[in-house]
Amino acid sequence: MNEQSEGPARLKVIVADDQAAVREPLAAVLGLAEDIDVVAAAADGTEVLAAVAAGPVDVVLMDLRMPVLDGIETTRRLTEEHPEVAVVVLTTFADDESILGALGAGARGYLTKNAGRQDITRAILAAGAGQSVLDREVQNRLLATARTKAAPAPGDAARQPLPDDLTPREREVLALIGQGLSNRGIAEKLFISEATVKTHINNLFAKAHIRDRADAVRRAIGAGLA
């Protein structure tokens, strides 16, 4: 939508929402961010897939409830066919089925439409950098769901012991992720920078073979840290 200016490469983003009154203003606002280039706006999943095929695309900001092809199935197809494209869900729905369905399909982030412009921009940039972002409401929902479910089988990954080589700080960071804190919240809690938090998270995820933030929440609960 907006022409790419000279300088550092900006993330190429698709905004997908079936409501034009949501889609168009959101695309216009995100297009003002210096790190984001909105290359298409889509009204359903088929338009998303067509725009990605025409590419290149880095991130899709995805609504879940869309006609023709919904957000979860579109996310699943993107994960299978275009794994290099990150999906950040932006929806009004924060029920277990929607959250688990989207994350299970491969979404890298999940926000509700209560999120502000800065939160959405931050989530898109994080997804483009290979990180996962869940808003506080979604993290709390995952925590509640995990705690009320029956204990998993002995071989379940969530119950696997954490590696012995995790540092005390990495365990502390995992515990705070399990409590639903964002990177910024962890940084404020531990009196360290967000960059340092990201370093701890990257090391933690690599050592413990944690896939994403949702997986980290499950592992924290399984280890009794949350």
Structure, described:
It is globular, with a radius of gyration of 18 Å. It has two domains: 11-148, Response regulator (Rossmann fold); 168-223, Arc Repressor Mutant, subunit A, CATH 1.10.10. It starts with 10 loop residues before the first strand and ends with a helix. With 226 residues, it is of the alpha/beta class. The protein has helices at 20-30, 45-54, 71-81, 96-105, 117-128, 136-148, 168-178, 183-190, 194-208, 213-222; strands at residues 11-16, 36-42, 59-62, 86-91, 109-112, 133-134.
Keywords:
Rossmann fold; Arc Repressor Mutant, subunit A; transcription regulation; 6 strands; 2 domains; alpha/beta; 6-stranded parallel β-sheet; 226 residues; disordered N terminus; single chain; globular; 49% helix
Itemize the secondary structure elements and their pairings.
Blueprint: E1 11-16, H1 20-30, E2 36-42, H2 45-54, E3 59-62, H3 71-81, E4 86-91, H4 96-105, E5 109-112, H5 117-128, E6 133-134, H6 136-148, H7 168-178, H8 183-190, H9 194-208, H10 213-222
Helix pairs in contact: 2-3, 3-4, 6-10, 7-9, 7-10, 8-9
Protein name: Putative two-component system response regulator
GO molecular function: DNA binding
Keywords: DNA-binding, Phosphoprotein, Transcription, Transcription regulation
